[in-house]
Design brief:
With about 325 residues, the chain is mainly β. The protein has strands at about 1-5, 10-15, 30, 35-40, 45-50, 55-65, 65-70, 75-80, 90-95, 100-105, 110-115, 120-125, 130-135, 145-150, 160-165, 170-175, 180-185, 190-195, 205-215, 220-225, 225-235, 240-245, 250-255, 260-265, 275-280, 285-290, 300, 310, 315-325. The chain has a five-stranded antiparallel sheet, with no helix packed on it. Strands 2-29-28-27 form a four-stranded antiparallel sheet, with no helix packed on it. A four-stranded antiparallel sheet has the order 3-4-5-6, with no helix packed on it.
């Protein structure tokens, strides 16, 4: 079932069986250079999909507890976060060779979200168990160098840091923590604001999936809430909530197609399977696409073809949908 608000229809064009295990998959990222998608799989490993062939071409198994991933300058960075008592690290994969080229042990555990400022060649990675963000210099993208740690608000957080995003023109970090969004100076880590969404805290957090929209100076924040108080749009300059939009189900990961200026919010809670679509200029939800699998926790966009890929963890299938303009 697809509901559309007079803008785009979505046609399924592929269902790609992954090589890794079934279950919750935390994140996917798109390699713009090679037209490949890297997806974190349940428990361990990263699956690599060619969007030219719509086929899984490799499973990189030796990454325990993979969480977020980001592609940058020929490399894919994976938050390796199996938790206390194991090796937690920032793992680096060569996007061309599909081989692990470095693994930098982190000071914290349960490594999670990654965001990158290409202007300053800085990578930020949250550690859930410690409620902090570790900062790395990636001037040499193959060899990240740990620089410092930012301690996040609020003190004594229940679920700890989750997703985060850097706003390079404003030199700000926006980071989810429980039902809040913390705002920090991206250079010093000094807190600027703590935005209270007042959404109920779930087992896996409250606020999720930040995306920075440089065109409108807004930060979009999904939540594990469903209904009218779901997706928050924050004015990135004033740190004030500008608009609140509905979600069909609780959101975990989000991705943006910058050319179409659409945000995709992938969801797994409140019985929802699939993703919501938002027009970031009009600040409205324009569609919800049901996906025939549970645990549609993550996905990404091929920014060359605009095809949206949603990972159905229960079946370990990556479903591909092409947006078709109605008018």
């Amino acid at each position: 079932v697809i509901t559309v608000n007079n803008e785009y229809d979505y046609v399924r064009v592929a269902a790609i069986q992954m090589q890794g295990p079934k279950g919750h998959g935390d994140a996917c990222t798109f390699d713009t250079q090679n037209s490949r998608i890297f997806c974190s799989m349940h428990d361990h490993g990263v699956d690599v999909v060619s969007t030219k062939k719509n086929k899984s071409i490799k499973f990189i198994a030796n990454i325990p507890g993979p969480s977020d991933e980001k592609y940058y300058d020929g490399y894919v960075y994976v938050a390796q976060g199996p938790g206390p008592g194991a090796l937690n690290a920032l793992t680096v994969i060569g996007a061309d060779t599909l081989k692990i080229v470095d693994r930098v042990k982190t000071h914290g555990t349960s490594d999670d979200e990654i965001t990158i400022n290409p202007k300053t060649k800085t990578l930020y990675m949250g550690c859930d168990d410690n409620n902090w963000v570790e900062v790395f210099n990636i001037s040499n993208p193959a060899k990240p160098v740990y620089e410092k740690t930012f301690h996040m608000l609020p003190p004594g957080a229940e679920s700890g840091v989750d997703d985060g995003v850097v706003a390079p023109p404003l030199n700000k970090l926006f980071w989810s923590d429980d039902w809040y969004v913390g705002v920090y100076n991206a250079t010093t880590g000094k807190p600027e604001a703590l935005i209270d969404t007042q959404v109920p805290l779930k087992k896996y957090g409250g606020t999720k999936g930040e995306q920075f929209d440089a065109q409108n100076d807004t930060v979009w924040v999904g939540t594990t809430n469903a209904g009218n108080n779901g997706m928050f749009v924050i004015n990135a300059k004033t740190n004030k909530i500008e608009k609140v939009l509905p979600e069909v189900g609780g959101v975990d990961g989000t991705k943006v197609d910058p050319a179409l200026h659409l945000e995709y919010a992938f969801m797994r809670w409140h019985g929802a399977h699939g993703f919501d679509v938002y027009d970031m200029n009009k600040m409205v939800r324009i569609a919800h696409i049901n996906v025939p699998s549970g645990q549609t926790h993550s996905g990404t966009v091929d920014t060359h073809t605009h095809v949206v890929y949603a990972f159905g963890g229960d079946r370990a299938i990556l479903f591909a949908y092409k947006p078709v303009k109605i008018h």
